[in-house]
Design brief:
mainly alpha
Length: 67
Amino acid sequence: MRNGQEKRLIQEEEEIGTAEEEREEKEEEEEEIRTTEEEEEDVEEEHMEEKEDPEEIIDKMNVGEGF
């Protein structure tokens, strides 16, 4: 009887361990997704910053700078 209980406890511990590993993997995947989204947002912000204001372009054309 005791041997059966030990086997059952071992099996339950293995199942708990597997569930914890799956949870950790899911958390890592979610963190990777968040990181990727943040990187994409950073790139978008950089592109927006790189675009010049149309008025500045006109001013440069009038002065002859950069063209």
